[in-house]
Amino acid sequence: MSKRSIVPFGPQHPVLPEPIHLDLVLEDEKVVEAIPSIGFIHRGLEKLVDKRNYKDYLYVIERICGICSFMHGMGYAEGIERIMDVEIPDRAKYLRTIWCEMSRLHSHLLWLGLLADAFGFESLFMHCWRMRETILDMFEASTGGRVIFSVNKIGGVLKDMDSAMLKSFVEMFDKMEEEVKTLTNVFLKDYTVGSRLRGVGILTKEDAILNGAVGPMMRAAGIEQDTRKLGYAAYGDLDFDIITGKDCDSFARCEVRINEIFQSFNIIRQAVDKIPQGPVSVDVKGNPNGEAFVRLEQPRGEAVFYFRGDGTEHLNRARVRTPTFANIPSLVKILEGCDYADVPILVLTIDPCVSCTER
Amino acid sequence: MNKYGSFSGGILGSLFKKPATKGYPFVQREYPERTRGSIVIDIDGCILCGLCEKKCPSAAIKVDRNAGTWSIDRMGCVQCENCVVGCPKKVLSTDVHYTPPSTERTVDTFKKAGAEISEATGGASMPNADLDKCVFCGLCAKNCPQGALQVDRASKSWKLDETLCVSCGLCVEKCPKKCIEMGADTTKAPVTLPQYDIDDLPLADASACVYCGLCASACPQGAIEMDRDAKTWVINEDKCIHCGICYYKCPKKCIKMVDAETATAQPEEKKAEAAVSLPKADLDNCVFCTLCAKNCPQGALTVDRASKTWKLDAESCVSCGLCVDKCPKKCIDMSAGSAAEANEPEFKRGYEVDATPEADTDLCVFCGICQKACPQDAITVDRENKTWVIDEDKCIHCAICAYKCPKKCIDMR
C-alpha cells in the first residue's frame, strides 16, 4: 500500500470556480476520500427575512444566486402566493416560464463554457460564453437586469413582454439553436473532450438515489424525475419529456445538459405560441399567515423552498434547500477513486453553486 | 463517433467574423430602455414621505424630512427598482445609464426647494377625515401604500395608524367625497363602536335618554322595548345579539355596553321632566342654516334656505332634541311645537318618471318594510349583511317604497 497524503483543495484554487474546500486524501495520484467543508461565503440571507417586509424580501432572496436569481425570486413569490391563496394571472405564469427557461439556457451555456475551460479548451469556452451573452442581452431588454432580474412580485410579474419582443426573441433563439448545435457537436463528438469525460466520475443509479442527487446529476444516472412535471407556472400546459442519460459518467451529465438546452428552446417556443393575453399581476393585500413548500427545477436541479408567516409583515422563517447542497454527497461519492487531475472537472460536473449552498 | 478537428469549422468561421466584443471605451454600448442603470428623482415632486427609504432592501436611500433632502448611496443601491415601484408620487424613475465609476462611496443628495417650511411646522401632517361627510367607502384605505388606514363600513369607523402613516397625501387625492384633509384637527374622536365583551348588553342612561325609540327601531332583533309614555327602556337579554347597533344609532349617545349583571340589576328609572314635545323654530331668529335638518336622526325637518321655510314632519319626529342642541342661533324650542301645529308630512313626488329608488344605507335600518311594500318584489333587504339592493329591471318606479320607508332614507334618483 502506498503512502497516504492529504491535499487541501480550495476554497481559493486556480482551477476551481467556486469557493468550496475539499480535503483530498490521496494514495499516489488516486483520491481515496474527499472531505468537503463549506461556509466560506455565508451571508445570512435567510435570517434577513425577519428584518425586511415580506414584499421587499423578494429582492433579498433573489440575490442568493447570480445564475438562478430569477428562480429564487419566483420560488419565493410562489411560496407566498400559496400561503396567501393568490391566483396569479395566466400571462404571468407563462412569462415566468419563459424567463425560467432562459435562465436554464444561460446557466447551461455558462456551465458548458466552464467545463471547456476546465479541460483547457479555451476557444470553446469563449464561444459558449459569447452565446450566453446574447441571452443576457435578452434578459436586459425584457427585465432590465443582466444578472439580478428583479422582475418577480408577489402576485405576478412586474414587466410584460409584448408580442413584438417575444417574436424577436423566438427568432433569435432559432438562429442561436443552429449555432449551439455546431458548438455542442464539439462536446459530443470531439475526441479530446470525450477522453476527459467518458468513463470518469461514474455515479450509478443506486448511488444517485442513496446520495440524494438532484437535477442533471440524477437524470444522467438514468433516474427519470423532473420537478417541472409538477406543473408549476405554465409547465402543466407545455409538452416536454424528461431527459435522462445512460452512462452515469461525466459525459452523460454533459449530454443531459446539452439536450436540456434544446429542450428549453422548444419549451420557450411552445410558451410563446400559447401565451394568453391579459394582466401580468394582481394586487396582494395583507400579510402571509401559514406555511408553504415550493419545489422548483432550477438549472442545477431541484430547489426546495419553505416559508412560514405568522400574519405580520415579517416572515418567521425562510429556508432554501439548494440543488448544489443536495449534490455534495454525490460529489464526494464520485471523487472516491478518481485521478487527482480529474478533481476540478468532477467538481464542475455537479454544476456547483456554493453561493446558493451557503446563502 | 470520436473524431478529430470537429471544431475546425468554427475556428475558420471566426476568422472572417467581426469581433464579438465592442471597442469600449471608444464605442459605447446602447442600453435597452428597460435597463436599470441608476435611480433618478424629480425632487420637486417629492413629498419626502420616506416610503422609498423603508422599501430599499439595501438601505441605500435616506430621506431627511426636516432638512428636506433625499439622498442615495450609489454604491449601496442594488438597482432593484423597489423604490420606483413603491413611490406614491411616481417621482422616482430608472435611468439606463450607470453612475460613473468611482473609488469612493458616492452619496448623491437632492434638496427639495422650500422644504424649510416643513421644518417650521414640525414635519409631517396626518390626514383626518370629516366623518360627517365620509361615506366609509374605503377607497382611502385601499390606496394607502402603507396600509395605515382602516375603514369599516359596518361600524362606521375610520382609523389612522399614525405610526405607519407617511403623510403622502394619497388618501386625500383618492377620496371621492373630498372629506379628508391633511393636518386637519385630529382632536375629533372618530366614531367607533366601544370595546366591549362579546356578551355585554346595552344599557341606556335614564337621565340622558329622550325615549326617541331610534335604538328600538334599529335593533335587528327587536330586543329593546321602550315605552315613551311610561318612560321605560328595557333590554330583552334573551333576544339581544350584542351587535351594538343601538349604541351607534343613539342620537344622545346615552347607551353603553355593560356586562349582563349590571344591565339587568339596574332598575329602570323614570325621568321626571321628560315630556313628549315637538320642536319649533323661532322664525324671526332662524337663519335657515339647515344644521338642525342635517342633524335630525329621523329626517323629520325640512329647511329650505331659498324659500325661508322650516317644516317639521310631526309623525317622524321622535322628540330627541338634537335639533335644539345643534342650532347655532338657539332659536329652536322643544316645548313650543305641537302635533296639531306641525306642518303636514309632505311626500315629494317630483321625481323623473324613470327614477329608481335608492336607499341611503347610512340611515337605513334594514327593516324590510320597503321590501314588503314593493308590488314587484324588486327590493331585497338583507338585515344580517346590511345590504339594500334594487332590481332595476323589475322596478316600475312607483315610489311606494320611498313613501313607506319609516326612516325616509329612500330617494328617487
What labels would you give this structure?
heterodimer, A: alpha+beta, Cytochrome-c3 Hydrogenase, chain B, three-stranded antiparallel β-sheet, globular, B: 413 residues, alpha+beta, Alpha-Beta Plaits, 5 domains, two-stranded antiparallel sheet, 13 helices, 20% strand
Write up this protein.
The complex is a heterodimer of chains A (359) and B (413). Chain A is an alpha+beta fold. Chain A has one domain (41-340): Cytochrome-c3 Hydrogenase, chain B (Orthogonal Bundle). Chain A has helices at 57-61, 69-84, 90-118, 122-143, 163-189, 191-197, 205-210, 215-219, 250-274, 323-335, 343-349, 354-358; strands spanning 4-9, 21-27, 30-37, 152-153, 156-157, 289-298, 301-310, 315-321. Chain A has a 3-stranded antiparallel sheet with strand order 1-2-3. The model of chain A has no long low-confidence stretch (mean pLDDT 87). In chain B, the strands form 10 sheets. A 3-stranded antiparallel sheet of chain B has the order 2-3-5. Chain B has 413 residues and is an alpha+beta fold.
Radius of gyration of chain A: 20 Å
Q: Can you count the beta strands of chain A?
A: 8
Class derived from helix and strand content of chain A: alpha+beta
First and last CA, distance of chain A: 41 Å
Largest interface: A-B, 33 and 28 residues
Poorly predicted regions of chain B are 116-123, 185-191, 270-274, 339-349
Under CATH, the topology of the largest domain in chain B can be stated as: Alpha-Beta Plaits
Tally of domains of chain B: 5
CATH topology of chain A: Cytochrome-c3 Hydrogenase, chain B
CATH architecture of the largest domain in chain B: 2-Layer Sandwich
Roughly what fraction of the amino acids of chain A lie in strands?
5-15%
Major sheet size, sense and barrel closure of chain B: 3 strands, antiparallel
Number of distinct helices of chain B: 13
Strand order of the largest sheet of chain A: 1-2-3
Distance between the termini of chain B: 86 Å
SS class of chain B: alpha+beta
**Low-pLDDT stretches of chain A:** none
Tell me, what is the CATH class of the largest domain in chain B? Alpha Beta
